[in-house]
Amino acid sequence: xxxxxxxxxxxxxxxxxxxxxxxxxxxxxxxxxxxxxxxxxxxxxxxxxxxxxxxxxxxxxxxxxxxxxxxxxxxxxxxxxxxxxxxxxxxxxxxxxxxxxxxxxxxxxxxxxxxxxxxxxxxxxxxxxxxxxxxxxxxxxxxxxxxxxxxxxxxxxxxxxxxxxxxxxxxxxxxxxxxxxxxxxxxxxxxxxxxxxxxxxxxxxxxxxxxxxxxxxxxxxxxxxxxxxxxxxxxxxxxxxxxxxxxxxxxxxxxxxxxxxxxxxxxxxxxxxxxxxxxxxxxxxxxxxxxxxxxxxxxxxxxxxxxxxxxxxxxxxxxxxxxxxxxxxxxxxxxxxxxx
Length: 340
Ligand code: BGC
Description:
Strand order of the largest sheet: 10-11-12-13-27-23-22-17-20
Bound molecules: beta-D-glucopyranose
Number of strands: 27
Number of domains: 1
Number of helices: 3
Mean pLDDT: 97
Oligomer: single chain
Low-confidence stretches: none
Largest sheet: 9 strands, antiparallel
Helix content: under 10%
CATH architecture: Distorted Sandwich
Structural class: mainly beta
C-alpha cells in the first residue's frame, strides 16, 4: 500500500523526468531540457513531499469525482436529486473537501509498449463518497514516451448512475518553476468558443459564446499577459483567465487542443485530449503568501493550468456535453502533455 509521501519517477531516453506523489497522484515535477539542453522543472509546486502535504492540495493533483464546479452542488439523474457539499462559496468544486486530490492512490509500475515507463494509480470511491452515488472504480495510467509525451489515461466504472469529470491540475511555467509569471508565454487554443461565467465567481452561465473580439481569443498564438491584463468583464471577474474553452471539432478522439510556448527558453508544450473542453486557469488566487520551489513565494500568474475536462456544471446544462456515467459503461479520458 502506498503512503501519502511516496514519490515515483518516470524517465525517458531524452532526460525528461516526471515525479509524482501517491497523495492525490500529484505531479511534483516535470524536468524538460530546452534546445540547448538546459533542464528546467516546468511545473510549479513544492520542493519536498512534506511541504506539498502542508500546502495547496490541488497542485498537480488528480481532481474528481467532478473536477471544476457543480453549481449549488446540486444535480439530478433519472429524476433523483443529489446534493453535494458546497466547498467553494455556493458551488461544489473539484469533488468536495475530501476529493481525489486528497486521497492516497495505490500506485504500481506497469509495462505498456508505448511507454518508456508507466505507473498505474488506482482508487475505489465507495457508494456515497462525498455524497456521490455509486461505487466508482478509478484507474489512471501515468506514462512517459520517448517522444517526450507525458500521457494521462483515465478509466472509471460505476455501480450506479453517477456524474464524473476527472482532470489533472498541474500548473505549468515553461521557463521553470519560480522563474516569474507566465505573462510572456504564448498560448494557442483550438477553441473558437468558450463558456462565460456569471458575477458569481466560477459559475458558468450555460452560454457558449464566440471568443472572437474578446481576450479569450487564442485561436492564434497570443501572449497570456495581453489577456490577463485586459479590462474585459470576464477577465476582471477572476483577475485573469479561469474559463472553460470549447474544443473545436470535438468528436471523442484524441486531438490537439492547445499549444503553450515560452519564447525565452524556447520550450513548447502541446496538449492533446479526447475531452470536449479545457479549463485555462492562470493561478489568480496566488498572492505570494505561500512558499514554493526554491524557497520562492508563489505569486499571481506564476503558472497556468490546462485542465482537459467535460464542461463545468455539465450535469445541469442540457446544451453541455454529457457527464453521466452508468453501470456497464466505462469513462475514458486521455490527456497528453507533449514537450518539444
Ligand atoms: C479552478 C479555479 C480554482 C482552482 C483551485 C481551478 O481548476 O478553475 O477556479 O480556484 O482550480 O485550485
